[in-house]
Amino acid sequence: MVLNTRLPLQADFLIIGGGIIGMTISLELKTRFPDASIVLLEKEQQTGQHASGRNSGVLHAGFYYTANSLKARLTREGNRAMTDYCIEHKLPINRCGKLVVARNQNELAGLHELIRRGGVNRVDVYLLSASEAGEIEPKARTFEQALYSPTTSTISPVHVNESLYQDTLLAGIRILTGTAFISSKGSEIKTSKGMISAGYVINAAGLYADHIARSFGFSKDYTILPFKGLSLYSENNAESFRCNIYPVPDMNNPFLGVHITVGVDGVVKIGPTALPAFWRENYQGLDNFQFSELIKILGMEARLLVTNNFRFRKLAMEALSKARKNKLVLLASRLAEGVRQKDFMKWSRPGIRAQLLNTKTMTLEMDFCFEGDDRSFHILNAVSPAYTCAFPFSKLVVDEIGRRLK
Fold first, then answer.
1. Cα–Cα distance between 216 and 375 in angstroms, integer?
2. Helix residue spans in 185-311 (DSSP H)
3. CB neighbours of 18 closer than 8 A, spacing ≥ 6?
4. In the predicted structure, residue 25 carries a pLDDT above the cut 70
5. pLDDT digits (tens, 9 = 90+) for 86-119
6. Which of 118, 185, 275, 308 could be 228's S-S partner, Cβ–Cβ 3.0 to 4.6 Å?
7. How many CB atoms lie within 10 A of CB 360?
8. Does the structure show a pLDDT above 70 at 75?
9. d(CA 59, CA 82)
């Protein structure tokens, strides 16, 4: 059941965006302010239709990130919280772990750096010999050593989103689906179905968070630069894998590289791509085409090609090469035996990463980024792995809102 309410209406808190971040924030607000009226606004007919419903389902452990960083802490805590949530609500979870494998001698230094970060971040990670890694995943290919993360898991985003949606309804939170934000004037919020008078607005709109933030005077130096991710699914699970297998990442690259993931249903996939998207919801063909977005994004990408900030030219060329099935299979076959193109022929449903770009420095924001005041709060960059971090991140957001409301 979707709860819709006639407009106009009033709300103490209005959350824009019905993805996992919007839903967990609304639940956290209801816990802290049980008597408050809370409305969740979602432009689609159902919640969780964008990044939250197109997520890889990997629960990351937190060892990739800079030692003692906010992202590292939230990932570690989020992994535990989401694992507990899935167990408590009897949702599917595959606690298969992850191996990070090295291709050659040069990558061992990067592997050791991940072990170091994992230790500082208080994440369970272990340095294994190649033979020890083979006992965990016989198909894994690695040079001398590998990292093992036992707390990395895979879950079903669809099941989690549906469970959170039901939790939100049961908490007495009003969910307005098929209702898009249009503009704001003071406390009056204009939507596609009428006006809402909001005491406080929380913007968790993902791909359009920057656009909405500008309506409130924020996000002056930021814009979303979307990247499209696609994976290949195995149509033959007879030779299934035991755990996820990742390469040693390039620490200067915002993406983790092509990897092998074992889903909750045992289906194996390889990927993803990281293609520049030409408009924000550029999922398939010309669906959701926005000419103004196309022009702006092409302009940004042309500027990045000229300046070559964060090695954009190399990233773009690598991304284009991975758009071919045979290239994805080749990269995955370097991680493990038994990866054959005939088994990986089906493309996944595409997802789009809402990556924030600082337009002054022309650099990608690689950590969570938010702005706000005593009227509104804007989550500009719910950066990967935001799905893993959702529960503790929502607590952090409500803490920040509480400080601004004092």
1. 9
2. 209-214, 291-307
3. 40, 41, 42, 44, 46, 47, 48, 175, 177
4. yes
5. 999 999 999 999 999 999 999 999 999 999 999 9
6. 275
7. 9
8. yes
9. 8
CB distance 164 to 27 below 8 Å: yes
pLDDT at 213 over 70: yes
| 8 A C-beta contact, residue 192 and residue 43 | yes
CA distance 312 to 253: 10
Q: What is the Cα–Cα distance from 251 to 229, expressed in whole angstroms?
A: 19
> What one-character-per-residue DSSP string does 102-165 give?
-SSGGGHHHHHHHHHHHHHTT---EEEEHHHHHHH-TTB--SSEEEEETT-EEE-HHHHHHHHH
Structure tokens at 341: 């193109």
Contact of 235 with 130, CB cutoff 8 Å: no
The answer to whether residue 2 scores a pLDDT higher than 50 is no
Q: Give tens-digit pLDDT for 33-46.
A: 999 999 999 999 99
- The C-alpha atoms of residue 403 and residue 96 are separated, in whole angstroms, by 40
Q: Phi, psi at residue 170, to the nearest 5°? A: -65, -25
Residue 392: asked if its preceding bond is cis (omega within 30°), the reply is no
Instruction: State the Cα torsion 172-173-174-175 to the nearest 10°.
Output: -130
Rounded CA gap, 100 and 121, in Å? 17
